[in-house]
Design a protein that fits this description.
The complex is a heterodimer. Chain A is an all-alpha fold. Chain A has helices spanning 2-37, 45-63, 66-90, 95-118, 146-150, 155-173, 175-185, 187-192, 197-224, 235-245, 250-273, 279-297; strands at residues 134-136, 152-154. Chain A has one domain: ABC transporter involved in vitamin B12 uptake, BtuC (Orthogonal Bundle). Chain A is built from 12 helices and 2 strands. Chain B has one domain (47-325): ABC transporter involved in vitamin B12 uptake, BtuC (Orthogonal Bundle). In chain B, strands 1-2 form a two-stranded antiparallel sheet. The radius of gyration of chain B is 21 Å and the shape is globular. In chain B, 52% of the residues are buried. Classes of the chains: A mainly alpha, B mainly alpha. At the A-B interface, α3, α4, α9, α10 and α12 of A face α6, α11 and α13 of B.
Chain lengths: 314, 355
Amino acid sequence: MVTDIFQAAMLVSLFSAMLRIATPVIFAALGELVAERSGVMNLGVEGIMLTGAFVGFVVADKSDSYLVAVVLAIVAGGIMGLLMSFMSVSLKLNQTVVGLGLNLLASGLTFYLYRISYEIEGTMEIPRIETLQNIEVPLLSKIPFLGPIIFNQNIMTYLAILMVPLIWFVLYRTKLGLLIRGLGEYPRAVDVKGISVDRYRYIAVMFGGMMAGLGGAFLTIGYSGIFVQEISAGRGWLAIVIVIAGNWRPGRILFASLLFAMLDAFQLQIQAVGVQIPYQILLAMPYIFAILVLMGSRARSVPPGSLGEPYSRE
Amino acid sequence: MLIPFLNIRIIRRQNETKLSQILPVLIALFAALLFSAFLVWLAGSDVKVAFTALWEGAFGNIRQITETLNKAAPLILTGLAAAIAFRAKIWNIGAEGQLLSGAIAAYWAITTFPNLPPVLMFIVILLSSFLAGALIGLLSGYLKTKFNVDVIISTVMFNYIITFLLSMLVDTVYRDPESYYKWSPKIPDVAQFPLLLEKYRLHAGIIVAIVAAFVIYLLIEKSPRGYEIQAIGHNPTASDFKGINNAKTILFVMFISGGVAGLAGGGELAGLIHRLRVDFSPGYGFTGIIVAMLAGLNPIWIPFTALLFGALLTGSLKMQIVAGIPVALVYAIQAIVLLFVITAEFFTLYEIRRD
């Protein structure tokens, strides 16, 4: 009886950790989905998440307003998206190289700005902020087992999950969504109708950047409470993998995000229990899993027809 | 083409001149310099003091010049790794992981055969580190040709995986029992690269790197293989028609690219660091990408651009001490240079007119 309760509590904490860990990746992957559906392969997600994490952290720390922090993280992500679209859509530079450039920029710049904003003040203690509080939904959180998992999360996790049907609706049930999907498949058709391909690709990529910035903000504000160099730790890249594994569809992307998050939640649990495995093996699991997932799904998944190709009339 | 929201039109240049090719790059470097000055100013430091310290820290005296050369050596190799792959439009950004696997393999070889004579030891170090990097690269190539897994993603994943592997090794089997730090014991003297000058740390790695640059130059520019590499870079469909085996070329490129990056790891281990440790590479694999891009993916130019970024890394130490600017600035500068230079590349091909 006692072990039953113990096990149930373990499972609740495992699944609830999964949702929390999935949150930033769901945001970033949905944003990347929109950008890729418009035909732009934004490989800068990792860097944009890092930027969001940094901006969110600094603003939350200096202003104590989490709302302002999140909004500015979104704005910062949008600016990175603007840079990506300017260089890849307008200048038609190689999207891979531009994406890599953004990652390196974010990595260097956040590290530098963090150092000059904090360490120069001579404090040896790591600056720390309070993380977002969980919001217990009345009544629903009392549902046995599922209640404490789903209805006792912080506001950003709720938002991330709500974004999934929202993005699905916009992509598949609105004119804008049809347009964006058209841009990714056959931009010429959109162009012929007199609609600016570039303008809507800008919008899609900037939206993707804003979502990645939002996801990044969660890393510091919602999860760790501290900023460290490379805090995004490959989550942006996992978001790109998840978009492929989810075959460019919102529902499957949610599922893939949860699967990866489960792996992470599981390794946290194992470490907490104190199983004698080098922790590095546990930490490497999501990346190994990512390669295996791609090996299994790449043959079956179908990317948007014009993904990664700059559009020009000639 | 029209830029949205602004009425600016971009048209292809009619005549390409030498000036229209070089000028944008120079302007890009100047713009990157200005931006860096802005970042220094942001930190509340004197820009002139900081940049003087940067210069003196890199080239101020013989010791600093030798340190700069030592930093340039791995950058030449990772730059070559990026250049050969990018020429074929194969996006190997796994040089960091390939470098680390080269170091791990060389360490394994040294500790397994510690009694080899020096010359043989030197060869074993080069071979083992090259092969380890090459096999990791080949694995990414295989994942691409067999399972259509994008090279860019698999190489990024391997960067993370191998970083964890290194961390695990220095925490367990290779852990130095006599040290508080998580690092391996030092390699024996016989395995250390010969020093080129007395009293300085300048080691043979720079020679290995320059020889490699020459070999890669011959491979890309003067061999039939090089022709195939450039052909799939230009147009994979057309090269397929010409009877070039694209899959085989991808595997070959990834093998060489990974191998050259692996050499950088062996060179760092035997030449400078002498042990495995978690912070073995300050991102040489990523800086190599920028080194290669700035050199226009041309192996002949890579030693020069590598020297530039090596100087930044060395000089930044003095800049930190003298002007209080965090070393992290270098990484921001590197990325800014990359973004400005690829933008400049655009302006060598196009010009802008107001509508």
